[in-house]
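Hi support team,

I've been running sequence recovery on a batch of backbones for a student project. Most finish fine, but this one hangs at about 90% for roughly twenty minutes before it completes. I'm not sure whether the input is malformed or the queue is just slow. I've pasted the structure tokens below so you can try to reproduce it. Let me know if you need the job ID as well.

Thanks,
M.K.
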């Protein structure tokens, strides 16, 4: 296992996922807004859309995968209906990403990119909030080694992008 950030190494038994999830999501949502908001209007020029598509396929997708990996590790802690809803919403995000990748590379697609981007941003904010509510209370000391590694990956992302 890789080295943990100093504050993670000092975790008390009663600490939960909430502070880490909030911090990571705040950074991810701020970064996503910075790259996606310019294309949320149908007047966005092609090269702005292209920049957004590159961000989505590179940085956003990597963070999305880290989030999904942690959710997989947390399923056993969540009520079945909550775990299923979070999974379904995560899959909706993946479909929107694929749609943006497909249409964002084409010329004359400003209106479609705008609508899909607005939907993605709305769903992403809701998904992050739902994950925080559902998984935030889980004590860190209950995580499996894989769960701890997933959490460390999220923390690395946050420390790089803060």
């Amino acid at each position: 296992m890789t080295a943990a950030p100093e504050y993670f190494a000092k975790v008390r038994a009663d600490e939960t996922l909430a502070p880490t999830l909030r911090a990571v999501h705040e950074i991810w949502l701020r970064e996503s807004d910075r790259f996606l908001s310019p294309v949320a209007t149908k007047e966005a020029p092609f090269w702005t859309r292209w920049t957004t598509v590159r961000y989505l396929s590179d940085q956003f997708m990597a963070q999305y995968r880290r989030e999904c990996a942690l959710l997989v590790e947390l399923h056993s802690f969540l009520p079945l209906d909550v775990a299923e809803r979070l999974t379904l919403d995560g899959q909706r995000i993946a479909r929107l990403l694929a749609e943006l990748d497909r249409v964002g590379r084409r010329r004359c697609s400003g209106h479609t990119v705008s609508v899909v981007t607005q939907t993605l941003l709305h769903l992403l904010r809701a998904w992050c909030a739902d994950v925080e509510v559902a998984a935030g209370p889980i004590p860190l000391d209950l995580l499996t080694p894989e769960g701890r590694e997933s959490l460390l990956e999220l923390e690395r992302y946050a420390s790089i992008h803060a």
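--
Follow-up from support: It reproduced on our side and the slowdown came from queue contention, not your input. The mean pLDDT is 88. No action needed from you.
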